[in-house]
């Protein structure tokens, strides 16, 4: 990978975009979608707050000290970077948050905690916060897309790894950095970005920390750069830059993607929304199973075996190791298990948060069927543009029943409407807050450009 000249360096182009973007330069339809993505993330944060890992993380952050930064749905405050860490976990914890398909990154989960946290501290307008959020989204999704799904192949989780770069520039913007300092911020965060996929082996909680760590790291890097700290300038294309360091030998990153169409083409419009609370790679297969339930209503003992066709690059994430996937030990295992999700869809005609509780995970009918669910690589997939899935059921009376989802629901080519996002927000938020409070949050977020961040913060931390 040849080093670019300083003028052509990716970090310089991205810094220039981040610092010069005016909110009025962003088309109104993109701004509207951005506000709805923020609303989706906040609804998820409310829903996540009741889960054990959220309480454990809050206790740990409080142990590190109090502060002045708002935590979504809590009355108490934390130190800025600790609040970002926790808010990222709250948005991402249920694995129900948005995904940029080509970048394979949950971008809002880092962009929102970073933009909101710094905007609250700097007492900015809602419009300034929205602009910073857009910067983080546009940068992170492009930087992730360059790898062409290569980060997963070597065990890195792009949400944490790549989100840090977008957050470094969102923070640079809110802190008023120069272009040179914003370049240094990207170089500094290169030594902080992280995210291991080892959680897939045993359902550990670590993935949930990745986006908040990206937000915290990006903020730290930008603050260091603000005070004159020097970072490497070739953060992306350098000999030990992001792509040389985090991709396997033989990978072919397309560096042009990082800056292609910057400021003219908006990656926010390519962000997919999740209709079910599971890894995005499972959604098409889940919908295919639900369609077969609705058409045939098969009982578990009527099914001899099930074959699920999935894109090759997702096999290691949602199909292997087979023993773990066929008997998920916890909710996180279940969210990354094609056998469990397909079995649930075939027998119950759904996959919701209720299917992740202890009783559902112990359902003997579902667990019996998961043992009969196997996978094949889908040779006709359009992955990563679409996360395809096909379910083929072989019945004991000799029938072959099949349903294919060629375009996953919620993707850019089959998008969830803004009204659908609002509906999803209420479904999640009303699990823990009143309708009156949910209405206040909706109005504040959807009217963000006319709202101060201080007002939004008051509403978000308002106790029940």
Automatic annotation (TrEMBL):
Residues annotated as domain MmgE/PrpD C-terminal: 277-447
Domain MmgE/PrpD N-terminal, residue spans: 13-248
InterPro entries: MmgE/PrpD_sf, MmgE/PrpD_sf_1, MmgE/PrpD_sf_2, MmgE_PrpD, MmgE_PrpD_C, MmgE_PrpD_N
Source superkingdom: Bacteria
Gene Ontology MF terms: lyase activity
Sequence similarity: Belongs to the PrpD family.
Protein name as it appears in the record: MmgE/PrpD family protein
Annotated organism of origin: Caballeronia humi
């Amino acid at each position: 990978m040849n080093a670019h000249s300083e003028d052509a360096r990716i970090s310089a182009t991205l810094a220039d975009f981040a610092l010069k973007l005016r909110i009025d330069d962003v088309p109104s339809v993109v701004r509207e979608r951005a506000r709805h993505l923020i609303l989706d993330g906040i609804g998820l944060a409310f829903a996540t707050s009741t889960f054990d890992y959220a309480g454990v993380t809050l206790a740990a952050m409080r142990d590190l000290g109090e502060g002045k930064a708002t935590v979504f749905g809590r009355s108490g405050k934390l130190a800025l970077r600790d609040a970002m860490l926790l808010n990222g976990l709250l948005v991402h914890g249920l694995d129900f948050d948005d995904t940029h398909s080509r970048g394979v990154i949950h971008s809002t989960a880092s962009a929102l905690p970073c933009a909101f946290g710094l905007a609250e501290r700097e007492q900015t307008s809602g419009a300034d916060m929205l602009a910073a959020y857009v910067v983080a989204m546009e940068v992170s999704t492009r930087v992730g897309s360059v790898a062409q799904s290569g980060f997963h192949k070597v065990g890195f989780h792009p949400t944490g790894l790549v989100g840090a770069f977008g957050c470094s520039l969102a923070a640079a913007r809110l802190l008023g950095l120069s272009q040179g300092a914003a370049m240094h911020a990207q170089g500094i965060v290169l030594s902080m970005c992280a995210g291991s996929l080892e959680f897939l082996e045993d359902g550990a909680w670590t993935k949930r920390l990745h986006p908040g760590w990206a937000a915290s790291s990006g903020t730290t890097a930008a603050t260091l750069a603000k005070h004159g700290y020097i970072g490497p300038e070739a953060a992306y294309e350098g000999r030990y830059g992001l792509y040389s360091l985090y991709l396997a030998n033989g990978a072919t990153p397309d560096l042009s993607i990082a800056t292609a169409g910057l400021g003219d083409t908006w990656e926010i419009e390519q962000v997919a929304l999740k209709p079910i609370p599971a890894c995005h790679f499972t959604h098409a297969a889940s919908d295919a199973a639900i369609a077969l339930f609705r058409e045939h209503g098969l009982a578990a003992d009527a099914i001899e075996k099930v074959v699920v066709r999935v894109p090759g690059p997702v096999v290691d994430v949602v199909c292997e190791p087979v023993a773990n996937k066929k008997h998920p030990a916890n909710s996180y295992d279940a969210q990354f298990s094609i056998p469990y999700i397909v079995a649930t869809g075939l027998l119950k005609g759904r996959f919701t948060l209720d299917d992740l509780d202890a009783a559902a995970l112990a359902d003997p009918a579902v667990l019996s069927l998961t043992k009969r669910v196997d996978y094949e690589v889908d040779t006709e997939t359009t992955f990563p543009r679409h996360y395809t899935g096909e379910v083929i059921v072989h019945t004991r009376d000799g029938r072959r029943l099949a349903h294919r989802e060629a375009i996953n629901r919620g993707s850019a080519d089959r998008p969830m409407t803004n009204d659908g996002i609002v509906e999803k927000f209420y479904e999640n938020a009303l699990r823990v807050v009143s309708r009156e409070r949910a209405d206040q949050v909706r109005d504040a977020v959807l009217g963000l450009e006319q709202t101060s961040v201080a007002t939004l913060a008051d509403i978000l931390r308002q106790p029940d």
